[in-house]
Amino acid sequence: MLIPKHIAIIMDGNGRWAKKRGLPRLYGHHAGMKSVREVVRAASDTGIRVLTLYAFSTENWNRPKSEIKGLFNLLKLFIKKELGSLHKNNVKVIIIGRISELPINIVKLVKKATEKTSKNTGMILNIALNYGGRQEIVDAVNEIITEGIYKKVDEKIFEKYLYTTDLPFPDLIIRTSGESRISNFLLWQSAYSEFYTTKTLWPDFKKKNLMEAISDYQKRNRRFGGL
Predict the structure, then answer these.
(1) Which of 45, 60, 142, 204 is an active site residue?
(2) Total structural domains in the chain?
(3) Does 144 reside within a domain?
(4) Within a domain: residue 73?
(5) Which stretches of the chain drop beneath a pLDDT of 70?
(6) Using one digit for the tens of pLDDT, what is the confidence trace for 14-62?
């Protein structure tokens, strides 16, 4: 059966998961990290070439400062606990987004993760951190203008300036929690992606849910505008 080369996931529903249980939102994010761990391993075992996770958007800065701090603490905890295992399993970690705008301790930690795994040849775990699709396009345009090399830019040239320049476009985009929005995620890259939405909240999304999404993808006929 056809396995998607690149799966991207909008991990939604952590706050609602916590609210349903009468817990603070941060408990939902903590539970969501367990799903990240299981889904990363499942994707790697299944033969997925690239797994992109929407971890923190440029719009997430509008959340309460306490929640933002908690999210970054969880990110630090995840990297510190999982980096050894990821490296052992030949997973390559890369980060996309406006990384320089993040707290310095986060910048140092993600740099350590990317450097340590840079020569790995297994699945690519692509973490979208301080990421926004519109911002990515603007950054690409500004970089092209600054370089001043091209009089005319086509799609192939433009795509070289995206954060995802060396990655295939996502075959399948999954969004949890029942929402159907793209939420400023991979706007250019998702032009012909297949979408899969599920009402399952992210902390409840496990290996079997990933397999269900892949199974649904395998039933589709991707025509890319053709017949």
Answers:
(1) 60
(2) 1
(3) no
(4) yes
(5) 1, 224-227
(6) 999 999 999 999 999 999 999 999 999 999 999 999 999 999 999 999 9
* Predicted pLDDT of residue 92: 98
Q: Which domain holds residue 81?
A: 6-132+169-218
Query: DSSP string of the chain?
Result: -PPPSEEEEE---HHHHHHHTT--HHHHHHHHHHHHHHHHHHHHHHT-SEEEEEEEEGGGGGS-HHHHHHHHHHHHHHHHHHHHHHHHTTPEEEEES-GGGS-HHHHHHHHHHHHHTTT--S-EEEEEEEE-HHHHHHHHHHHHHHHT--SS--HHHHHTTSTTTTSPPPSEEEE-TT----TTSSTTTTTT-EEEE-SS-GGG--HHHHHHHHHHHHT----TT--
pTM of the model: 0.95
Residue 60 annotated as catalytic: yes
